[in-house]
Amino acid sequence: MGEITHVSPLAPEAFPDLPVIEGVSFAAVAAGVKYADRKDVMLAHLAPGTAVAGVFTRSATRSAAVLDCQEKIGHDSAAGAAIVVNAGNANAFTGKNGATATKAVTNAVAACLDVPEGRVFSSSTGVIGEPLPHDRITAKLEALKAQLDPTAIDQAAEAIRTTDTFAKGATRTIEVDGKAVKIAGVAKGSGMIAPDMATMLVYIFTDAAMQRADLQSLVSELNQSTFNAITVDSDTSTSDTLLVAATGGSGVEVTADSAPFKQALHDVMQELAHLVVRDGEGATKFVEVRVTGAASADDARIHAMAIANSPLVKTAVAGEDPNWGRVVMAIGKSGAAADRDLLSIRFGDILVAEQGWVSPTYKEEDGANYMTQQELLIHVDLGLGDAEDTVWTCDLTHGYITINADYRS
Amino acid sequence: MGEITHVSPLAPEAFPDLPVIEGVSFAAVAAGVKYADRKDVMLAHLAPGTAVAGVFTRSATRSAAVLDCQEKIGHDSAAGAAIVVNAGNANAFTGKNGATATKAVTNAVAACLDVPEGRVFSSSTGVIGEPLPHDRITAKLEALKAQLDPTAIDQAAEAIRTTDTFAKGATRTIEVDGKAVKIAGVAKGSGMIAPDMATMLVYIFTDAAMQRADLQSLVSELNQSTFNAITVDSDTSTSDTLLVAATGGSGVEVTADSAPFKQALHDVMQELAHLVVRDGEGATKFVEVRVTGAASADDARIHAMAIANSPLVKTAVAGEDPNWGRVVMAIGKSGAAADRDLLSIRFGDILVAEQGWVSPTYKEEDGANYMTQQELLIHVDLGLGDAEDTVWTCDLTHGYITINADYRS
Questions:
Q1: Helix axis angle, B297-309 to B324-333, nearest 10°
Q2: Which of A278, A302, A336 is the last residue of a domain?
Q3: B314 plus B348 within the same structural domain
């Protein structure tokens, strides 16, 4: 993998102040999995009673760690738990050795922290097809255990980076019956230099007390409008993982019906999802694609993703070209219901096209001026029904080609 | 649109010698539809008795000319016919004016050549959303008629270019019962500089005598393994059109069951399809993606297209990087059936991965050496069944970004 040479122009100014979540402690070390001289393994220790929910890549060639997590998620347990993540090696497409390596790590973590092996969730991110040097990870477990610290979540965010140009975190605190409930999350994804996969890994922690099944249904539902609603280049990792842990440390019981908690968790998930797009390979523009007036929710998503994934739309955005003809093309090819003469297209608030043609009020200079902004909205109303959806993407630039073609990974 | 500055490195050495097809004559003029100082309208006059078949874009926002052709195709008629094509303006997303402009052109051609309007097929390619200046085309019809010439098919190939870096033609001649049957075709598509859509237009002529329904079923069948099996960037034009005309001029009756004719027509269609890929925007590599051992033909196509359209695979090819991990990723994300431990991947004849891991015989230097070639084969065997499919694509380079982002269209 290449060196991280500069930070995405869409990065936030600083990593946020993340609060302590009672019941979780973190540690990170330099284990030399692949990188030298940087932290590349993170451990999170979760108190007994913590509920853990997860969502994973749907890839048919998913990694050994993902397969292991999928077997473990969905079981209730009052025991302690752990999350262990390494950067530098994805342990994907490593044949039968993949599962052996994952088990070596999770068994060692279970023994070290005295938690059931079935409650140790692992992720691996980095190069594909190389055997995971799991002994380098297990050799560091005692050191990790000795360093466990409730305030060290920022180190976890650093350790899981591969080619990310910045560490990603988000937090929200709500009040329920006069008591604070906190949520803090970290993510990696869509890094800048010579990645294999731009794998997305997300770990979110809350001190809410929650039933596992409730947490899982909430996470699965919110995932659809957050992490499943972003795309950088339409390619899907073999390792994408989202884990959410509710420790109960606040003493506040929350159910899947708690509107304020749902909103706060949604906001943390959406903010982390947007940060992944903002670190999209070569990205210079952050683009929201909003589709309204669709015949069904599925149609709205299909149209929005067709626009967000179209190389011709994404290069037009990169070129600051208000090329609405390419948006028409993307709608046309998506396969979902559309009527040329009923749809309208807006760039921000600017009505560009309607009634099957360019709008009589549209001036090309207005569109061109709008496209120079760093944050853009492409809004299509299909005029067919009431369904809508929103997805987020970035532009397709020379930077993407440089990252993925000019360097050998 | 920008200037055509250089020819694709994948272009053939010269435009082929296309034979006269008895029953068709051609003309091309500079009508100034958009370009100055170049031929931009072509007319083909088809003798009475010519059978015409067609296949068109499935876009929901297809152009006025495509909609008009679709209404007309599929009717038997012994009358004469015509094909009229303009470059420079796609007459797409031009509202109600689109149909009006198309009818103005086809009515004028019908009157000029004394053929039924229902037998005049038109295409338009170029910018989207601008009204077609149809009077510039109709003003040139008498001049076109005066120039009609059975040998002028090469001028037709030139006139339909928009941003193509070379004119495209292909031909085959077979012998049936001691008599020659000829096929000649021209195409445009996937041009080099600042296109809006990379629209593909294809016109093929044969002097075989054929029932229209037979010709249509043959063309529809062969289209699936030729023009529908190519992709440059996964985007679909609003104007893609394939028309095949059988004049009967050879006096040789051919049915849909004629194996030699089917093979020859397939070869012309495949050669033209490959030429379109060879003129792919920014292309430096011609890539065949072959999927065998699939559970079904649909699965084979889905996997092949997932690989061929993956930006990460295409940039790896551009970078001459034997990055088989990205091929695994594309198979995994496609949604079609795959088993990580049963599939194998070959670059050309080089076995790269099998049994869920890199092959013990594979040497990275062999893969790297292979990828330096201009023509590449990526072969995936899924190990699940007997179905297979092949598609063709090109790499994704800085040239693509330059063409589509750096120039305002």
A1: 130
A2: A278
A3: yes
